[in-house]
Each structure stands twice: as C-alpha cells, then as structure tokens.
Amino acid sequence: xxxxxxxxxxxxxxxxxxxTRKQEKQPRSSRIVAAHVNLLSAxxxxxxxxxxxxxxxxxxxxxxxEGTRVVESQPPPQPLALARSIPRGTVFSxxxxxxxxxxxxxxxxxMEASSVKELEEMVEEVQGLVNEKLFIFAISxxxxxxxxxxxxxxxxxxxxxxxxxxxVTTLSEMEHEAKKSxxxxxxxxxxxxxxxxxxxxxxxxxxxWHEDYGINSHHWHWHLVYPVDFGVKKDRKGELFFYMHQQMxxxxxxxxxxxxxxxxxxxxxxxxxxxxxxxxxxxxxxSGQTWGSRQDNTLMQDSSRVEVRSKVSDLEQWHSRIMEAIxxxxxxxxxxxxxxxxxxxxxxxxxxxxxxxxxVEADSSLSLNYSFYGxxxxxxxxxxxxxxxxxxxxxxNLGVMSETGTAMRDPVFYRWHKYIDDIFQQYKLTQPPYxxxxxxxxxxxxxxxxxxxxxxxxxxxTGWSTRDFEASRGLDFDNNKPxxxxxxxxxxxxxxxxxxxxxxxxxxxxxxxxxVRIFMAPKLNEKxxxxxxxxxxxxxxxxxxxxxxxxPGPNHILRSSTSSSITNLNDFTFRDLEKxxxxxxxxxxxxxxxxFCGCGWPxxxxxxxxxxxxxxxxxxxxxxxxxxxxxxxxxxxxxxxAAASFCGILDALYPDGRPMGFPFDRRPLPMLLxxxxxxxxxLTRLSNIAMQDITITFTNAKITQ
Length: 705
Ligand code: CUO
Fold this sequence. Notes:
31% of the residues lie in helices and 16% in strands. The chain is an alpha+beta fold. The chain has a 7-stranded mixed sheet with strand order 1-7-6-17-14-9-10. Strands 5-4-8-11 form a 4-stranded antiparallel sheet, with no helix packed on it. The protein is built from 24 helices and 17 strands. Strand 4 and strand 5 form a beta hairpin. The structure holds CU2-O2 cluster. CU2-O2 cluster binds next to helix 11 and helix 16.
C-alpha cells in the first residue's frame, strides 16, 4: 500500500490534470450530493424540488412527481457550485471575498475526510473541475489543519506551480530541451533574476529580492496559515499580520540600502500615477494564461471587474474612518459601542493593534465593524491588480498583486504595504513609551555580543547559491516521458552560516530563565548618516528570539544562525519527501507541528545582501525575564522551534507575551537613567541590553555549504 505521504504527493502533483477516474468508480459524489441537498433543504424549498434536484445530481432517470413542474430557465444546481465558479486557468485570489467563499466551500468539503485515503478519493472527484490554485490551496489547508494529517509534509509550492517562479519563455525552453533529450539525460535549466528586467530601472537592483522563491513561498504559506474569513481565530492573528509584514519591510529596506536605493516610499496618494510598472512574464496556474501587467505611470482607477467592484474613493473613505479611530482612541463596533484601542491590556483582552489590524486587513468575521471600516488592505491589493484593465474591457487577467504567492515580485507590493504599515505605526505612536522597568532586567548583564563566521569576528559574508527544483512535478514537459525529471535551477542570495556569541552575567544566586532577543539594523541611512532612535526604529529586523536558562554567574551563550526563530528549514521537494520515510511516532512534537512549522522565512534570506566594499550594521541583544514574557499555553501545546516569531504555533498561543516588535514598536522614553534618549545605543545604559557593530560583505561569488 502507498504511504500516506506518497498519497499526498500524488494529490499535489500536476494540478492542471483533468479527472482521470474510471467511470465505474464514479459518484462517491453522494457526499457532494448530500452536502448539496442540505443547501436545497433550506426553508422555502419544497420536498419535491429537493427530490427532483437530487435525482438530477445523482444521474438517475428523472421521475416526475405528479404536479411537479420543471422550470426550464433554471439550470440544475451543481455541487460545490461556489468552488466551481472560478474558471480554471484564471487568478484565484484570497483577497477577493467571493473567492474566499469558494475556497471555504471546498476546504469545508475536504475537511470532512476522515483519512488520507478518503481525502484522496474526494480530491480525485474534484480534480479538473475547479481552479487549480484553489484546488491546491484547499488540499494544503486541510492537510495543515486536520490533526490526523499533521505528520504529513507539503512539498514546496515552487514545484507544484513552477509557472509562479520562472517565465513562460524559460518553461518553453525546458519543454524543448526535455523533448529532444535522450532517456538518460537530465535537463537542467538555469534561471536568475537578472533576466526579468534591466538595470535601466533602478528597482531592478532588488529583483533578486522580489523574485526570490523562498520569500514568495513564505508569503503564500503565511496566508495559507492565517487566511481571512475562514473563521480561523488564531491567537493575535491581527497583530501578527501587522508584525510579519512590518518585518518583511524592514528586511526589504535593508536590502534596498545595500544596493544604493532609498527606503521604500508608501503609496498613499492614489490620485497620482504609480511610477513603477511591472511585467510579470509568468503564466497563471501552469495554464499558459498570462498575468496582467502594469505600465510605468499608471493611474489607479475605480474597477467594475466582477472580482473587484470597488472605487478609489472607497479606500479614501475607509482610510479616513480608520485614521479617526486611531486619533480618537477607539473603534466603533457594529452596534455603535466605542471599543478603546490600547496595547496595555491583560490577555485575553485584545490589544488595540490586534483590533485595528483585523479591521484594516480586513477579516469580515473579526473586524469589529466590517461594513464601516471596509476592506482597506484587501481591496487595495485588488485595485492595484486591476489597474491595467479596470473594467475588463480587454479581458486581461488580474496582475500579480492579487495572489499571495506572486505579489511580492511587484515593487508596488512594498509601497502598498508601507502604506498599510504606516497606519499601524500611527497607532503605535499613540501608545506610551516602555518604562525603564519594562525594559530592564537588573539582575542580568549582557557583557558582550559578537558574531563569528568562518573564523572571522563580526564579519559576515553573502553571495549567490542555486537550488534545484523539479518543474516536472507541476508541469508535463513531455507526454512520452512524464516521469523524467526536468530541473529548474534557481539562483538566490545566500550567506555563510554564523554563530552568535553572547556573554551574560546572572548576578542572582539562582538560575534565571530568560528570553534572548536579537535584532539587526543598518547603521547608516541612505545619506550615509547615523540614525536616531525614531528613524532607525522601523529598520530593526528580528534575527532570533529564544529562551535560555542562565546559571548564576557568567554564562556563555552560543547560538547558530540556522536555529533562528524566524526561519523555516523544513522546505522540501517532492523527491525529498519520497525518500523520507513516514515518521514512526505520529504524535511526536516535531511531527504533529510539522506543517504549521513549514511556515517561515527562508534561511537563505536571513541576512541582507550588504555591499561589496562591506556595509555597517548593528546587532542589538536584549535579555528579558521569561517569567514576564511567557504565556500560559493550553494543555498539550508544545513549543515549536521553527519560525514561531513569524508564524506562531499551531493550536497554541503566540509564545511571547510582549507586544510584537518589542522594544522597537513604540517611541522611546524621552529620558532614561536621567539622560536623554536620542539613539538606540542609549538603551545600552540598561545592563540587559548590548549592541555590536558588524559588517556584511557581498562577495558576488558562489556560496557553497
Ligand atoms: Cu501579505 Cu498584503 O498581506 O500581502
């Protein structure tokens, strides 16, 4: 019998396939029919109508009940009608409400499966009937969430949808090579971001970032784990939406500074043209249909497209209502109650940032007043995605901003999210600074911090690497040799692994459980000037966060860069998972948490590029009291070592009680220990905080590990 892991891989392989099941095995669709009969049994439907519709669905001869009349103009209702409403080969967008409803219908249906075998049967029934991206989203959603399936791994989305990562011209080249290759030849095609545009466009300097397979996969996976409108009430979901996206912007700006670009500017005036265009050169869902592209200097417009149907003035109205809430200090819920916005609350009461983010993103089931505060973030994505053909007069597909797995390729993504982040930052500035007491841990002294890489102290090295993916898992290159691997070799930024070396003294006579927080930021801005606390505040990127038990006296903490709490090492190809046997102990923590932990920042993008002549960065290390940071987890919840900072923990509370982004999420105290606070380094007056200058040098050479 095939292993369950193998069955999952089969479900996800080549999503464009049509139904291949033999006729005699057909309706297992009794389940679909049953689900649909429930729909038909809604009040107001007569029993005869239900019976009639049911017989149509099951394919038996229709026997007319006496007195029953067929209404000719009504086509028979289809099972999973919502899920089938999004055409194959077109964009499936989680930012569109009707698409979310379609996805929910299919996810709910698949969630009924009580075993992998049953899921496989249900998947086979639906194969070829629904949009390919929706299909993969729903299978992945279910495998991630069903407790009995959590030991199963999802292969990289890069192999399921190669067309999301390499242009159609490269795919045709691969097809050509595959067809003319001999059976013992392996076709390997290289692709790097240098092909996507030219250096005549300054934004192209960060194409390696925009087009990185790991960053785009992470974003797809994050939104799979934290979907909007799915009734997913994850702890601090809104706050994590704010924080994870803010951190991506901090990292992006570090790379922009590395290549001599200014930090990203927010896109907040929607009445002037967007200066930078974007031409994706990709196809949708492996279907051959192309994404919409945007010329330079395109003006955002109202859209009457069925997926969008919104106006620029909607955004403006929601914006002003949200701004008013921030500056009044409260949101107004749908019953007219004023709900105070404050981050100084005791759980389970929600922080202001959580409430605000739920309203801005927006999740209609979590927003306190969806009809009033609207859907600012989601509709913004869609209006930008529709900008090239707002009324569908040209029948062009939406642009990449409509899809979580491709949006980060477009430079406008960062400008849009900078605008969204600016809303959150305006709120954060209304919050009181952290007090000296909240910041300090007087019994602990961080004596020094350093990083070590290849026997060099405080010097980190970046360069290029490649990774091979089998595009033939997602696409058929040669019908005669469907199992022959066709490889795409993707070029990406990388760095040599390094180790943090932290000297800490615990002056108490007892051991002390602490949280170690490590951040990194550029030392200088684009003008080459040192930054004050407020300017540098938004550039601090979290590098790691972990608990440590300090013994009394001196402690020497060594921590590898590969253990980072933001990164995900569990990024597998189909081949990796075929080789890897099923775990023996299905309830072992690493197995039950696996899929959720599959969310996370790519390890190879942990460091910014830096400059060839070396670029100065600062490390910031803060040690806080775990007793104050910890949250009471529900029974049975286990800690997850992978990517908890960005992705939380499955079925458990976010593993840090402090506001996300602490201590940089608020303005600083004006005075600390009787002196002014100007720069971040002024915080090192506290014994539990230390900083260190480091250099990142970009070698432009191959990094092999
Ligand atoms: Cu992740 Cu706008 O939320 O892209």
